[in-house]
From TrEMBL:
Organism: Alicyclobacillus sendaiensis PA2
Cofactor: Mg(2+)
Protein name: Shikimate kinase
Quaternary structure and partners: Monomer.
Similarity comment text for this entry: Belongs to the shikimate kinase family.
Subcellular locations according to the entry: Cytoplasm
Role according to the record: Catalyzes the specific phosphorylation of the 3-hydroxyl group of shikimic acid using ATP as a cosubstrate.
Chain positions recorded as ATP binding sites: G13, C14, G15, K16, S17, T18, R120
Listed EC numbers: 2.7.1.71
Catalytic activity annotation: shikimate + ATP = 3-phosphoshikimate + ADP + H(+)
Pfam families (alphabetical): SKI
Molecular-function GO terms, alphabetical: shikimate kinase activity
Length: 172
């Protein structure tokens, strides 16, 4: 447990940033919301990075921040939902983290993201359910591929999800 790093992956809205601090407290680990780390590193918001520099620049920053997290121990990290589209990130996650895929149904994600779509660059300007379904189709295999543990989150509290993850960690 001393060198353990846990990464919570899954589509935006699945609860990574909510479950992460609960899990970190339970384990006595530090929590890093990778999107906040990226914003701090860049000195700009994620929508600003997307608008000014484009998605490739954002993905490069994301990879850099994730690599820094891989050098730390006793850490729970919540990367953005698209971290898995970059192969180097998938390799790093698989080799350096216990990866927990927080899996949610598209309807659950749409409910949670309905009020936030305008603040999420990849959802803006698209019919919400269609866009979620399409992005999930593109990313779902990646989440499955790197997952050490899969937790279905629909209808569960952050505490119940953290407990399920903790139970899974006892077996490693």
């Amino acid at each position: 447990m001393e060198t353990l790093r846990v990464a919570l992956v899954g589509f935006m809205g699945c609860g990574k940033s909510t479950v992460g601090p609960v899990l970190a407290r339970r384990l006595g680990f530090e929590f890093v919301d990778l999107d906040l780390d990226i914003q701090e590193t860049a000195g700009r918001t994620i929508p600003e990075i997307f608008e000014q520099d484009g998605e490739p620049a954002f993905r490069a920053l994301e990879s850099e921040c994730l690599a820094r997290c891989a050098l730390r121990s006793r850490l729970v990290v919540a990367p953005g939902g698209g971290v898995v589209i970059v192969e180097r990130n998938r390799r790093l996650l698989r080799s350096q983290f216990h990866v927990v895929y927080l899996r949610a149904k598209p309807t659950t994600l749409a409910e949670r993201l309905r009020g936030e779509a305008d603040h999420r660059p990849l959802l803006r300007g698209h019919p919400l359910e269609d866009r979620i379904t399409r992005l999930l189709r593109e990313r779902g295999a990646f989440y499955d591929e790197i997952a050490s543990q899969i937790v279905d989150v629909d209808g569960k509290s952050p505490e119940a999800i953290a407990e399920e993850i903790s139970s899974g960690l006892k077996s490693i």
